[in-house]
Write a structure and sequence with these properties.
Low-confidence stretches: 2-19, 148-159
Mean pLDDT: 82
Helix content: under 10%
Number of helices: 1
Largest sheet: 8 strands, mixed
Number of domains: 1
CATH architecture: Sandwich
Order of helices and strands: HEEEEEEEEEEEE
Structural class: mainly beta
Number of strands: 12
Distance between the termini: 46 Å
Radius of gyration: 16 Å
CATH class: Mainly Beta
CATH superfamily: PCu(A)C copper chaperone
Strand content: over 45%
Length: about 160
């Protein structure tokens, strides 16, 4: 491996580890994963920080990797957790943060065009009421297991 390719790889790794930001909004620790090996759905997770003095709201997300991209959350329906679209988006308070995490709020990709391959990245545009559009490259990490509720809970998806 040449010094040039090593340097480029290191630069890319550092860029992915650094938070993306615009107009007081920063995105920390983003990652995406597919629902399974041959999944037609996947999700992205991250922590969104609002360092501005104005409340903001994530109102939409878009990407070319799937037919539809929506903001989702989980709700309890008896003993089953269901995913539902959150049309009003997610509030990001001034000076605060909002976590998108497994078992909770997340960006949902439905009708994935190509498989989410471990180690690759997808480009996603997040749309905020105040900060506008922020496009980030999100690494795919199908091996990451930090689900808040733990595995084994039933889930049903409303679309």
């Amino acid at each position: 491996m040449s010094l040039k390719s090593t340097t480029l790889g290191l630069t890319a790794a550092i860029a992915l580890a650094m938070p993306a930001w615009a107009d007081g909004i920063s995105i920390e620790d983003p990652y995406a994963r597919a629902a399974g090996a041959s999944a037609m759905a996947g999700a992205a997770f991250m922590t969104i920080h609002n360092d501005s003095e104005t409340d903001d709201r994530l109102v939409a997300a878009s990407a070319d990797v799937s037919a539809r991209v929506e903001l989702h959350t989980h709700i309890a329906d008896g003993d089953v957790m269901r995913m539902v679209e959150v049309e009003e988006g997610f509030a990001i308070p001034a000076g605060g943060m909002h976590s998108l995490e497994r078992g909770g709020d997340h960006v949902m990709f439905m009708g994935i065009n190509t498989p989410f391959e471990q180690g690759e990245t997808i480009s996603v545009t997040l749309t905020f009421e105040q900060a506008g559009d922020i496009t980030i490259d999100i690494p795919i990490d199908n091996e990451r297991n930090d689900m808040m509720m733990g595995e084994g809970h039933g889930s049903d998806h409303d679309s």
